[in-house]
């Protein structure tokens, strides 16, 4: 039996969420009306997992999350509105330690929350198995971040001028649960003149990807763009698939071009990693491709990435040690589709090394 704490200031939302999990079965449920109650219930009820709203009176979800992660760390799934403001709050929550999020269809008080019931239950069940570590004190955390920042700058400078002229190549990345934090750990380490364009299919709602691309752009030396219209693929850019759609590559006017397209009905997850990988196989020499499979539930992209490796490409699967959810990388490894298995902290260096060969 999973002990679940549902936190939302709307009595209607609490009732609807409770009904979803009661119908799913296997949950012992308690409710909290605001962040203050959530912090108290986290200590007294000791839930295995928490669903947490963002906008609440007395204490909002972000403040409550910071207390939860400090006092009694537990897996938290944010339940956010499908707005730009909701997206920004969600990314802040992920940085504070939330393991995942579900976007409410229809606004803060969603009358259609059952539309995402399957996703919500799956993410909450998966969250239970995620190991959460206590936050370090602010002083210790700041010192560690300063050391890490110096190391990152050194890594960038060491590799900043070693590229061969006229290199052809493409990096594609598939990621889902836990992806925003993991991408923010890897992509800022790449130097501004990294010679390969990078395509990212991150499972994410349409309202979130623009904010996410802008957030990454502020921390990366490469320019980060959301693919809302066709764009020629060029070095120096990271292309983020637009949520609520899929992203593929095709030749247009003799140039490799990245294209958004409506969600393909025969694929379960979107933006689809599998569809992106298949289009790359059809339009690129696999020997020029580096495919990276990061944290996430399910098996999206594992078949296409395995075929890329078989055709002469190079692939990376994130190690279980750093994966928030080991599903997608594990599937790639199981199919013998991973050239190497690496902790997230080592993936940027591998991308830099392979691009130099």
What is the gist of this entry?
This protein has 357 residues and is of the alpha/beta class. The chain contains twelve helices and 15 strands.
Written overview of the protein:
The protein is α/β, with parallel strands linked by helices. The protein folds into two domains: 2-127, Rossmann fold; 162-355, Methylesterase CheB, C-terminal domain (Rossmann fold). Helices cover 40% and strands 22% of the residues. The chain has twelve helices and 15 strands. It has helices at 11-24, 35-44, 61-71, 84-96, 117-127, 138-159, 179-186, 206-219, 273-283, 302-310, 327-334, 344-355, and strands at residues 2-7, 27-32, 49-53, 76-81, 100-104, 170-175, 198-202, 223-227, 231-232, 237-241, 245-252, 255-262, 289-293, 314-318, 340-342. The strands form three sheets. The chain has a seven-stranded parallel β-sheet, sandwiched between helices. A five-stranded parallel β-sheet has the order 2-1-3-4-5, with helices on both faces. β11 (245-252) and β12 (255-262) form a beta hairpin. α3 runs parallel beside α4 and α9 (273-283) packs parallel to α10. It is elongated and about 60 Å long. The termini are far apart.
What composes the largest sheet?
7 strands, parallel
Instruction: Give the name of the CATH architecture of the largest domain.
Output: 3-Layer(aba) Sandwich
Number of distinct helices: 12
Give the structural class: alpha/beta
Distance N terminus to C terminus?
51 Å
Would you identify the CATH H-level superfamily of the largest domain?
Methylesterase CheB, C-terminal domain
Mean pLDDT: 88
Q: Which CATH top level class of the largest domain fits?
A: Alpha Beta
Strand order of the largest sheet: 8-10-7-6-13-14-15
- Helical content, roughly? 40-55%
**Global outline:** elongated
Estimate what percentage of residues fall within beta strands.
15-25%
